[in-house]
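Team,

Forwarding the record for the chain on the shared tracking sheet. I've put the sequence and predicted structure together so nobody has to dig through attachments.
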Amino acid sequence: MLKKFVLIVAGGSGNRMNQAVPKQFLELAGKPILMHTFEAFQGFDPTIEFILVLPKDQFDYWKELCSRHKFDIPYQLAAGGSVRFDSVKNGLNAIEEDGIVFIHDGVRPFVSDQTLQNCLNGTLEKGNALPVVPVTESVRFIENGTSRAVDRSKYFLVQTPQTFKVSVIKAAYNQPYSEWFTDDASVLENSGTPINTVVGNRENIKITYPEDLIQAEAFLTSKL
């Protein structure tokens, strides 16, 4: 049976939230955002194996939160690096078997079962899967002080989990770091592999700013 892993990257600080607590630890409906993210994947597949990447100086605080909230989903812990590239690489190094790996932002707790299934199917069929949603607002290209309208139907917002065969994405992360690497798909793409997109879900927001927390609370209320 093909093994499935989720590598959850949670290296955020509280700066853009104007909070002293890193955003992945902020509470949503009584527990840290990060725990909701774990539960989304466990609900999709209880056999999935978790690797959590955190800054090393946050290990003890996370363990304290787990004890306080009686959080008992098993996971491996890996130390984050100075940039996301290094954090993901450290997490991938903790996976010793081949299989499928979902690489996911720790502050995206609303990924749907359908999006996860789309990512899994896309990876099984084409080797990788990048969940995206269409841009719905008008888009302009701005350069050197001038702007022009562009066809928004050709643009999509990228989400996570970006999903890969473990051996393939591990090999891609052996290349040197580049500032052009904005996500895992760009790392793989730079090694010459085409990227396969699948349908994501609009609720799968990345909680980054205070207004995102308001939206997140609304999503949770709508589920009740």
